[in-house]
Amino acid sequence: MIRGVAFSRPLAAAAAVGWVSTAGAEWLRLEDLSQRARGERAREDLASNVSRQIAAKEDFDNKKMNSELRSAGESNPRLLSVDEWSAFMREIGAGWSLTFDPMDAHGDYSVQRATLRLRSPDVGDWPHIVAAVKAAEKRPGLRVLAIKLKAGGDQQRRSMEEAEIVLSIGWMRTPAVPTKP
Q: Is 106 part of any domain?
């Protein structure tokens, strides 16, 4: 006659506890992976939404920009003189490079787009950038169209790679300055 399988109850209980703890640890591992995946998807969705919003704001093509430039000159009763431009450049100080787009002449005034780029920007230059924007905003004939900032580096070593201020200038045309500032 065959008797049942012989086993030790304490050993069987230890095996059952080991199996339950292994299954619990695996369940926790899978739950952690699932939460990480949900977090990644949420971050990707957020990045996608932000990218879409930025793309919508950057949908300001050249035709719209040119009409904005024209309206800047037409709607601004006071235009910028060369002396006021010189005072503005002195106020913002050295360290900015300047590029002009072609001038759009309209009778007794001209409209032009200019880009100020801060040379070798640093995170500590932020007050200098804000001061330049404020100086441009208080000048009649100057309109801030865009502020472009680009940062780089990692969390420990953050750096500013680019700082630009895009301006629309409504120039007062005088016999002394017929087309160029």
A: yes
